[in-house]
Specification:
InterPro entries: Hexapep, Hexapep_transf_CS, Trans_hexapeptide_repeat, Trimer_LpxA-like_sf. The protein is α/β, with parallel strands linked by helices and 174 residues long. The chain has helices at 19-22, 25-40, 44-55; strands at 6-9, 58-59, 64-65, 70-71, 79-81, 86-87, 92-93, 96-98, 102-105, 108-110, 115-116, 121-122, 127-128, 133-134, 139-140, 149-151, 156-159. The strands form four sheets. It has a six-stranded mixed β-sheet with strand order 3-6-11-14-16-17. It has a four-stranded parallel β-sheet with strand order 2-5-10-13, covered by helices on one side.
């Protein structure tokens, strides 16, 4: 399934060069300051309060967002993280993509009791279902169903919630 993003064509210079036509400069400055502060704050309730209060993110109760997590600077209000989830160290959550001829914006939805391993990247327009586990260093470029273990770049499902492993063909078996 394709990611759910809104696409906007641009003319002239590449879309990132035109960034302040798509999002106000002062909003980006405020978001950047709050996000940078939160990246270093070790007090989880304070960090979650700041995300909710200043960035208008939805962050569930008892969710733990580790040090150095980088939230989307342009559209953090499009991030929803469920209850009792863990977002691992140095993970990046993006709600925007600025390309040469267009930019795309999409919500990121993370369910309840989700564990996202360190150094993962979540692209715009994806949803991770309740109870899913994302392996460290993964590129989440598609929806992940509830209760699965998924990992890789790009991400793929390794094990279903019922414990059955997914068989992948080795290169020499193709």
């Amino acid at each position: 399934m394709a990611r759910r993003t809104e696409r906007y064509k641009v003319r002239g210079a590449n879309s990132l060069w035109q960034v302040y036509r798509t999002v106000p400069f002062l909003k980006v400055c405020k978001n950047f300051l709050v996000i940078q502060l939160c990246r270093y704050i070790p007090f989880l309730p304070l960090k979650n309060w700041m995300y909710r209060q200043f960035l208008k993110m939805e962050v569930g109760e008892q969710t733990a967002i580790a040090l150095m997590v980088m939230m989307d600077v342009m559209f953090p209000e499009r991030i929803r993280i469920g209850k009792n989830s863990i977002i691992g160290y140095n993970t990046t959550i993006l709600c925007h993509e600025y390309l040469i001829d267009e930019y795309r914006i999409g919500d990121v939805r993370i369910g309840d009791r989700v564990m996202i391993g360190a150094n993962s990247t979540l692209l715009p327009g994806i949803e991770i279902g309740d109870g899913a586990v994302i392996g460290a260093g993964s590129l989440v470029n598609r929806d992940i169903p509830s209760g699965v273990f998924a990992a890789g770049n790009p991400i793929r499902i390794i094990r279903h919630g019922n414990g059955t492993e997914v068989k992948f063909l080795e290169e020499n078996e193709l």
